[in-house]
Design brief:
The chain has about 290 residues and is mostly beta strands. The protein has one helix and 24 strands. Strands 1, 13, 14, 17, 18, 19, 20, 21 and 22 form a nine-stranded antiparallel β-sheet that branches. It has a seven-stranded antiparallel β-sheet with strand order 2-3-4-11-6-9-12, with no helix packed on it. It has a four-stranded antiparallel β-sheet with strand order 5-10-7-8, with no helix packed on it.
Length: about 290
């Protein structure tokens, strides 16, 4: 029923992440095209998220925390501390830049997930935007508390902006939950804490469990403390070229974005940050050129 793919370990800023999307086996789930499960990690005086100014295009970033604090600053002038249960949603459009920083006085654990949603061609060259949602819809479905980050689930609808038909929700389990699904969506589960059973599968952190379209519900079970993200959407029919922080459609578009950021030509704006600007690496395909 579910198709499980392993996440791969990466380091972002100073924090270990498990990258559940994209992997060799799975590029997208609906328009969801990137999923980094961050931590849990300890934030100390010298060790926090600390990701300096870097650019994005063609995507929304969706940041969600279970523990900790992160300060978001962007080239639109936004400065927003995010806390657990809140949502930061940044739309890159043609270009935006941001930093994700440790909060000065916060010490403790950092645990969360950062997701990207690919923008369709109809909006991906549009303007950048930033939203912070301190209060998202939440309700009980069976033995689960459900927070809807994006889209609709079980009669709840998030106020967060979306360009395509997608859903993103957190389920905090303390038993069984039959999740209502849209049959035209494909879905994925990413476990952030504990372990979750679905059918004959046991899903733990470090994997993505994919469910093909055609089902209108899925029953999951987890002991108290089990936390799982549900992602879903209409299968994304545009072929993506993703490189570093850019979601594009071709290598030429990526080359142009790399050049614009490294030349600081204004396309991605400027972030007021104490952290150093992160230069783009050179795409591997450029190193084969004379
Ligand atoms: Mn970013």
């Amino acid at each position: 029923m579910l198709d499980l793919t392993d996440s791969r370990d990466e380091v972002v800023g100073n924090i270990r992440v498990r990258r559940a999307l994209p992997t060799r086996g799975r590029r997208t789930v609906g328009a969801w095209c990137f999923a980094d499960h961050m931590g849990p990690a300890d934030v100390t005086e010298t060790h926090g998220l600390d990701i300096g100014p870097h650019p994005h295009c063609g995507l929304h970033t969706v940041t969600w925390l279970l523990e900790g604090r992160v300060l978001h600053r962007d080239s639109l002038g936004s400065e927003q501390v995010i806390a657990p249960g809140q949502l930061n949603l940044m739309t890159a459009g043609r270009g935006v830049s941001h930093s994700e920083e440790a909060v000065d006085d916060y010490r403790g654990r950092l645990h969360g997930i950062q997701l990207w949603v690919a923008q369709p061609s109809s909006t991906r060259d549009g303007p950048a935007a930033f939203e912070h949602h301190a209060d998202l819809p939440a309700d009980e479905i069976d033995d689960a508390t459900v927070n809807v980050l994006v889209g609709s689930l079980g009669g709840l609808t998030s106020p967060a902006h979306r360009d395509t038909e997608i859903v993103g929700a957190q389920l905090a389990l303390r038993g069984s939950c039959t999740i209502p699904l849209r049959a035209d969506f494909e879905h994925a589960l990413i476990v952030l804490d504990g372990s979750v059973r679905a059918g004959e599968h046991t899903i733990v952190p470090g994997a993505l469990a994919h469910l093909q379209p055609g089902r209108d519900e899925l029953t999951v079970h987890g002991d108290a403390g089990a936390i799982v993200m549900l992602l879903g959407g209409v299968p994304f029919d545009e072929r993506l070229t993703m490189y570093w922080n850019f979601v594009a459609r071709s290598r030429n578009e990526v080359d142009a974005a790399v050049e614009a950021w490294n030349a600081d030509d204004g396309r991605f704006g400027t972030v007021e940050s104490v952290l150093a600007r992160i230069p783009s690496p050179t795409p591997f395909w450029q190193s084969n050129e004379d």
